[in-house]
Amino acid sequence: MTPEPLQKSADAPEQVEGLASRTQVADAPTILIVEDDPRMVRVFAASLETEGYRVFNADSGERGIAEVRARNPDLVLLDLGLPGIDGLSVVPQIRAHSGVCIIVVSAREQEKDKVKALDAGANDYLTKPFSTLELLARIRVGLRSRARTRDAVERIVTFGDYRLDLQRRRLSRGDRLVRLSPTELALLVTLARHADEVVTTNTLLKESWGSGYRTRSGYVRVYMHVLRRKIENEPTRPEYLLTESGLGYRLRTSQD
Ligand code: CA
What we know:
With 256 residues, this protein is of the alpha/beta class.
């Protein structure tokens, strides 16, 4: 990357030009980076363009919302610390008209905002500082789950040698049916609908039990414990049902 600042017009954010831009193909996934710090944008853009993604930048929340409408990107990397309208308020405004995958980027001191952003419809999060490998892995997962949502035909979610049929609500391992209670199944189905994404405790309660149970976060802990004992090879060191400390849980279906 050249050390000079990004070129950006005042009202129309431009594609970030990186060294790898010539390797991009027309149908490469597009990623919108909503971030006001040009150094961060350059770092993100360099890694993403090397992977062949098309990258755009919006340096404020307002521009980010406008860019999602204008360009219909495949994924939005949204910094929560923005001038003007903050990142947290951007999430519901994007969600109001777009199902695009949103990954929020937050600083350590924005833990509470992270939960709110996820509850408002963000799909995943990254906490600064994070590695390029972590960023790329989250983006691959995000793009995959968007593809999955798009062809809603996918009704089977697999992890390890498990196979969960969302339609028939059956979990099998190899040719053996795994017996789960309706509650355990409801929880697993919710996690599987958001496979590889972090699902907040609030969302788990609302989607598995209904909105009357929002304050019963203890339920989730108890049932996750039971589910792990039934599913994990080593329940204390889960491979699939991961805890996202202070946020919720994630069903891991891939090693990314
Ligand atoms: Ca920022």
